[in-house]
Amino acid sequence: MASDRMKDLAPEFFLPPQTNAALRRETVRLVAACAAFIVILGAVVALTQGIVVTV
To answer: Which keywords does this chain's UniProt record carry (predicted)?
Structure first.
């Protein structure tokens, strides 16, 4: 069960970063990962649906 796995995690896992720089770095990584996911998902949809993209 998911809640059992969460109990095994260290409490530090749930704390925010200690400094503003670390928080900014984590935020940038999350935004970049989300953008990459959306681009990859769009490419997969375009390829599977036969959508032609010209540059």
So the answer is: Membrane, Transmembrane, Transmembrane helix
- The domain limits of the chain are 18-55
- Over the stretch 21-51, which tens digit does the pLDDT of each residue have? 999 999 999 999 999 999 999 999 988 998 8
- How sure is the predictor about 2, in pLDDT bands with cuts at 50, 70 and 90? low
Main-chain dihedrals φ then ψ at residue 52, nearest 5 degrees: -95, 125
Reading the block at residue 13, the tokens are 């896992």
Residue 8 tokens read as 């095994």
For the cut 60, the answer to whether the pLDDT of residue 1 exceeds it is: no
Find all residues with CB under 8 Å of 26, minimum gap 6, and list them.
17
